[in-house]
Design a protein that fits this description.
By secondary structure, the chain is α/β, with parallel strands linked by helices. It contains six helices and six strands; from the N terminus they run E-H-E-H-E-H-H-E-H-E-E-H. A six-stranded mixed β-sheet has the order 3-2-4-1-5-6, with helices on both faces. The longest helix has 23 residues, at about 140-160.
């Protein structure tokens, strides 16, 4: 059963569309800071390669008859740097979409978070992992992402017709909990189980009944072996 605190704006009759939720590329973060919404965290050299790779992916889809009609991205630097090559390759402008921002997190700015959590001062924030108590509620993240998906889908369909496609560059946690919701799974999860790698593509296939299916792809899988597992992504 889907959480009652989530409002599904896609439940009304919809024209067909696909919204691709793309996670940004690897971030330059030698201090291993949980950067969250902090400014100044751009892509690493590998992350730039990933951004070019995901641009290749959507360019190849367009050549095969599956063009993207709209681009949007979180305003954070790492998302904007990831969407830039896609925009250049496809010749599309980018809509800055605040509703697909990274989740709020009380540990933002800390480095070596696992070690920090041994300090009792942080323990009150861990009292409710189901919500979670240390940051933005999972349901809140799903609500804002779905609202953005609805508006972008509607705009793309109005301009380009049934079957329009939209690419949205966002962040791991908002993408993942939205996928959990779409698949009817609990929002609470073990972060180690997230299937949402750097520059992965989580696609929401929308039809008359709302989100009818979800698909997942890792166009840059060959680059992932060299990536650093950074927090706050």
């Amino acid at each position: 059963m889907k959480p009652r605190e989530i409002t599904d704006p896609l439940s009304a009759p919809q024209a067909g569309s696909t919204v691709h939720l793309v996670r940004h590329g690897e971030v330059h973060n030698p201090g291993k800071v949980l950067y969250g919404r902090l400014p100044g965290f751009g892509l690493s050299e590998l992350g730039q390669q990933m951004a070019e790779g995901i641009a290749d992916y959507f360019q190849q889809r367009a050549a095969a008859g599956r063009p993207v009609h709209m681009l949007a991205a979180s305003p954070l630097q790492r998302a904007q740097e990831t969407v830039t090559p896609i925009s250049a390759r496809l010749g599309l402008p980018v809509t800055v979409e605040e509703r697909v921002l990274e989740a709020e997190n009380a540990f933002e700015g800390l480095s070596e978070v696992k070690q920090q959590l041994k300090n009792p001062r942080w323990w009150p924030l861990l009292i409710n992992p189901l919500r979670p108590s240390w940051g933005e509620p999972y349901a809140s993240q799903v609500n804002r992402v779905l609202a953005a998906v609805k508006d972008l889908s509607d705009q793309a369909v109005a301009a380009h017709g049934d079957g329009a496609e939209v690419v949205v560059v966002s962040h791991q946690l908002p993408i993942w909990v939205t996928r959990l919701w779409a698949e009817g799974r609990p929002l609470f999860h073990d972060p180690r189980d997230r299937e949402c790698s750097l520059t992965s593509v989580t696609s929401l296939h929308i039809g008359p009944g709302g989100v009818e299916s979800v698909s997942y792809a890792e166009p840059n899988r060959e680059l992932l072996k060299d990536a650093t597992n950074l927090p706050g992504a």
